[in-house]
Amino acid sequence: MTADDAARPRPPAPRPARVSGPPGVRPEVPVVNLANILTVLRILLVPVFLAVLFLGDGHDTAARIGAAAVFAIAALTDRIDGEVARRRGLITDFGKIADPIADKALIGAALVGLSALGDVSWWITGLIAARELGVTALRFIVIRHGVIPASRGGKLKTLVQVAAIFLYLLPLPAAAGPYLLALIWIAVALTLATGVDYVVQAVRLRRGGRAVHAGPGGAGAAGDPGRYVGDGDAGDPEAEGSGQGHEDVAAS
């Protein structure tokens, strides 16, 4: 190669060919992908977590540390699968359903286990479980009108719940009791407050959906009959209908 050849500008590298398809239709995302694998892993870790938690009398120091470690790993997969699903475009119908189930199963199993061991009052576990099941049912009830977006309060609620459970799992000294109780009370308060907020959102969404359907010709949002796009969707196909990602639904 001569000096003149080296000085000449090189042509741009060819870009990888894109898979063509009908206009407006996105390529189908495979169900078996990294985000969904992490979600399934979290579900499989729930019985492992319970088995470790109840080793011995349920208050064995090594077992409690092991249970806390398993819980932390499972909770961490919740953060990772949401990021992976959004960044890599791996949002699937399976993930939308399985992800919140995995989260509810992990939190519920931890609270039930701690209540069975006498560490957390049963009424706290029952209250949080009722709220989680109620919000999940509420989402399905209004799904045809639109999606209730996950609020910042919902994400904060989940974070506080996870932190409280993790600390309750650790074999901390008795002096930490008042601080743990204060943290779980904060979790309960956030649980109730965000639950009321989601009920208000559901009522507004349902009324808005009825108003759109009752419009001229019964046309839905953006001229599509029978479809209502929730506030903030801005016509984004990923945000329409039930197109939320893993973390958005699970952190409600």
TrEMBL record:
One Pfam family of this chain: CDP-OH_P_transf
Taxonomic superkingdom: Bacteria
Enzyme Commission number(s) from the entry: 2.7.8.5
UniProt-annotated stretches for the region Disordered: 1-22, 210-252
Family: Belongs to the CDP-alcohol phosphatidyltransferase class-I family.
UniProt cross-references to NCBIfam families, sorted A to Z: pgsA
Keyword Acetylation recorded: no
Keywords: Lipid biosynthesis, Lipid metabolism, Membrane, Phospholipid biosynthesis, Phospholipid metabolism, Transferase, Transmembrane, Transmembrane helix
This protein's name: CDP-diacylglycerol--glycerol-3-phosphate 3-phosphatidyltransferase
Transmembrane annotation, as ranges: 34-55, 123-142
PROSITE patterns: CDP_ALCOHOL_P_TRANSF
Biological pathway: Lipid metabolism; phospholipid metabolism
Subcellular location: Membrane
Membrane topology label: Multi-pass membrane protein
InterPro entries assigned: CDP-alcohol_PTase-I (IPR050324), CDP-OH_P_trans (IPR000462), CDP-OH_PTrfase_TM_dom (IPR043130), CDP_ALCOHOL_P_TRANSF_CS (IPR048254), Phosphatidylglycerol_P_synth (IPR004570)
